[in-house]
Amino acid sequence: MLHVARPMLGLLTLALAFAVAVPASAQTPFTLGGVSAAPGTAVSGTLNVPAGPGDQGTTIPFSIIHGSKPGPVLALVAGTHGVEYPPILALQRVRQTLDPRTLTGTVVLVHVANMPSFLKRTVYYGPTDDKNLNRVFPGKRDGTLSDRIADVLTREVIDRATHVVDIHCGDGNEWLRPYSYWVVTSAPAVVNASKDLALAFGLDHIVIDTERPNDPKASLYLANTAMTRGKPALTVESGGWARTDEESIARIERGVAGVLKHLKMRNDGPDPVTHPIWLGRNEVLRAAFTGLLYPMVEPGQTVAQGTLIARLTDFHGALLEEIRAPFAGEVLYVVATPPVSKGEPIGFIAERATAIPEIKRP
To answer: Which domains can be identified in the chain, with CATH numbers?
Structure first.
């Protein structure tokens, strides 16, 4: 029989307790949509959106890149609007560049959030219910198809994540310069962490958004849904006009790499933007009539108050209205295709912020 002195016995007991405690903090499998990823592996699957009255439901393709060590769960969402192609193509590339063996934490890639709109090539609205998916969050289990897509994304993706980036570009009708939104209507810790995400993504134009709702039951927007649930989130815009240009796609890839570095999920990646242009007062300009749109400005153009942004005519060519800049600022996007319906956007203008909100950090 082996006899152990009491001091040595105490050390062995402590070592055994430590050994038992280690597995509790080790990486465990990550399961989504019935697909499970073991630590250090990558898997793909689909989330099913059940059929409802008047539709057959749909699917949402996703990938899980599950790192070998525990850490943040970063959800990257593309295709919330179906004709916004650069984000969708960028996530195809991101999936190939993420190595789960060296990744800390987990990346969930939602490749096409709005499959009905993507396959039917519809701008803004879902083809079955005429709803804008990015205005119906957190969704409804018993609602229309867009409502149910939002519900599945909220429960299965947003609720499982620690950080969310909703990746957009100008829709199929929108000509856009790159920018992101920093939403400041949530809890201070979430607002500060979301600001850090915006800087890490690296786009130098950042809109300070003070008008998003803070009610979790009526969050409307995908990223805002995360923030009202205590999760830092970001909406970015890169590309537009139904193009698949390399510059817009690569810009998103760089941004994702910056976020991964910031969250310490990967060692390499670009540094945060150091001299961002903060944009304060902003306004989406909307059409008062249905007709043909003639844009008179370009994205990135600086305009004075009263500058003619676009003309709108009826279908016989008679002038219906002239849309002018309500204040001096920069054009972030303009609708650059002729069709426009009453109430739809025709452009977005923002002016440089005179002050940056200071949110006390804990």
So the answer is: 25-262 (3.40.630.10), 283-352 (2.40.50.100)
Q: Provide the pairing of β-strand 205-209 with 41-49.
A: unpaired
Number of Cβ within 10 Å of residue 231's Cβ equals 22
What are the backbone dihedrals phi and psi of residue 352, each rounded to the nearest 5 degrees, phi first? -65, 140
d(C-alpha 210, C-alpha 185), whole Å? 6
The SS3 assignment for 123 reads coil
Q: What is the pLDDT of residue 25?
A: 60
C-alpha 225/C-alpha 205 separation (Å) is 23
301-340 pLDDT, tens digit per residue, is 999 999 999 999 999 999 999 999 999 999 999 999 999 9
Q: Give the least confident one: 19-28, 53-62, 190-199, 206-215.
A: 19-28
pTM here is 0.91
What Å distances lie between residue 257 and 90, 135, 225, CA to CA?
A: 12, 28, 23
